[in-house]
Amino acid sequence: MISGKNLTKAYSDKKILSGVDILIGNGRKIGLVGKNGCGKTTLFRILNGIEDPSGGNIDIQNEIIGYIPQEFDFPDEMVGEYLEKRLESKWDTYKLEILAAQLKFSNYDPYQILTTLSEGQKMKVKLMEIFLSDPTVLFIDEPTNHLDIEGIMWFEDYVRSLPIAVVMISHDRSFLNHTVDEILEIDKQKIFRFVGDYDNYKEEKLKLINKWDQEYVLFLKKKQQLETLLENVRKIKDGKKRGRAVESVKKRIDREIVHNKKEKYVSKKIKELEFDTTVHTGKLMVRFDKVSKSYGDNNVFQDLSFELRGKEKIWLYGPNGAGKSTIVKILMNIEKPTTGEVTIGENIKIGYFSQVQSNLTSENEIMDEFIEKTGCYFGQAYGYLNKFLFDRDSVRKRVWQLSPGERARFAFAIFAYKNYDLLVLDEPDNHLDIETKEVLEKSLSEFNGTLLLVSHDRYFVEMVGVDKVLNLKEGKLTFFEEM
């Protein structure tokens, strides 16, 4: 078992975790959730001995720990060479073939350079490396971030089949529903435990919030009663009686109010994204006519034909490398088709959100970058950014200092400043915490224009409410009327 008692963590004067108790083991599958920046990765690093807690104790009894971080940092060497260094003996190379088979790593090539692997392949190499040490507890940070739907579904089955304890940080609600039997949430610097899958956690957390709110109302009522009582006993004419009564009420206030303070539960969320559009049903937004794309001898897809019409919400999905982002870039005229014709409807405003925010790396402060990219007046910029949870201190951060979650939030602040008729969103939910995803889902479900959405998050897609599906696989596009 791994147990943490009264764990705290602070960076200078900012407390991240406070009085955290945690118990891991017995083959349980656990999902760790919470807002971006709440301390999930920090807790992982503490439990794995990468960071020390500021206070508290960790006890590890008869466990071998494996840890897979959110991002992979592989050297520029061959897969086999990298893995063989982690074997106890050169005679153990057979273990690599066994692990590759267990992981269904059908295209395992020991001579391929690590840095040329897809993210899904890198995940499997990392799992092979970890399982060479026969771990009894596995920690995985955001395992679905770089996997396509087929990869996610494979990983769901794989996690369920493991006989060891697995703890995963994830914002993929469908993935959590299919894998975990327990949810741990970091909220207000504490850990809360919920037995069951993600949907059960949401239901139980709502009950808990209602309980806290009721306790807060009762607390305010008692506080008012004791304050009124204190005023009344101060009016007692007899000095001795008044003194004893005042002292007695003050003790009650100290015991029942000061040392038993209740606070109203508040959860800050970004504002909803609002886009005004007057596009009518049936208006031609985009037409692809026999569009093909090749890079040298690599034929990505050939003779793709489809249309986007007014008010349609379309989900484009397929395996990694199938060409989904290439379709998006051709639509946005970032890349040219090898053959075929692309037609964009007349007088439409297109909003494009890329999965890679490569333009958000400047030395500018957030406030200055926002004004430069949107043309917003200085006097309005702070109020607008505050709706996306950037306060007066954080707007003075340099753009390059932003975490992935903050960068995604800032990108949406810039994106949502203007109105669009057609939204083209390529993996918009990457690096967003669940609460922010929920706001985005509601905004997109209420959007009255046309939406082309690329995403591997099935829960997100379902909540947005797409009405048509385009599946791109092996260079061909298949059309479905519904999910």
User: Roughly what is the average pLDDT, rounded to an integer?
Assistant: 90
Could you give me the name of the CATH homologous superfamily of the largest domain?
Answer: P-loop containing nucleotide triphosphate hydrolases
CATH-defined topology of the largest domain:
Rossmann fold
Low-confidence stretches: none
Supply Rg.
Answer: 27 Å
Give the DSSP E fraction (strand runs of 2 or more residues): 15-25%
Number of strands: 18
Through-space gap between termini? 42 Å
CATH class of the largest domain: Alpha Beta
CATH architecture of the largest domain, by name, is 3-Layer(aba) Sandwich
Q: In the residues, how many domains can be counted? A: 3
GO molecular function, one term: ATP binding
Keywords: ATP-binding, Nucleotide-binding, Repeat
Domain ABC transporter: 2-220, 286-483
Protein name: ABC-F family ATP-binding cassette domain-containing protein
Write up this protein:
The chain has 483 residues and is an alpha/beta fold. It has three domains: 2-196, P-loop containing nucleotide triphosphate hydrolases (Rossmann fold, 3-Layer(aba) Sandwich); 203-258, no CATH class; 284-480, 3-Layer(aba) Sandwich (Rossmann fold), CATH 3.40.50.300. It contains 14 helices and 18 strands. The strands form four sheets. A six-stranded mixed beta sheet has the order 5-6-7-3-8-9, sandwiched between helices. A six-stranded mixed beta sheet has the order 14-15-16-12-17-18, sandwiched between helices. Strand 15, helix 13 and strand 16 form a beta-alpha-beta unit. Helix 7 (198-233) packs antiparallel against helix 8. The model has no long low-confidence stretch (mean pLDDT 90). Residues 2-220, 286-483 form the ABC transporter domain.
